[in-house]
Write a structure and sequence with these properties.
102 residues, mainly beta, six-stranded mixed sheet, 11 strands, 50% strand, globular
């Protein structure tokens, strides 16, 4: 498990690390995460985090800024995928996901 927690990261790109199977990038002001065949972005008003392990899969976290609320996880077509926070994504990779806040 590679631990990126609390590193004050704004962006993280782990797409080139073919051997990376588990990581935790929660507790950061993360706006952008790029993994192998997966992009996760935070919209205005918040930040994102992710924990990924072979056992748990990918778990996405949304952190609203003060005065904002989390609206949901959306795909690139604007379809809401989930309102859950944190969200255990069973679908997997091969897409772009957005956390929106209001």
């Amino acid at each position: 498990m590679v631990d990126f927690r609390g590193k004050n990261l704004g962006k993280l790109d782990v797409s080139r690390d073919e051997k990376l199977e588990a990581f935790d990038c929660t507790d950061n002001p993360l706006k952008f995460l790029k993994g192998r065949d997966l992009i996760v972005e935070a919209g205005q008003g918040g930040f994102i985090g992710c924990r990924m392990t072979p056992e748990e899969g990918q778990i996405f976290y949304a952190y609203p800024e003060e005065g904002k609320t989390f609206d949901g996880w959306y795909n690139s077509l604007g379809d809401r995928l989930s309102k859950e926070n944190p969200w255990v994504d069973k679908y997997g990779v091969g897409r772009e996901i957005f956390a929106f806040f209001k």
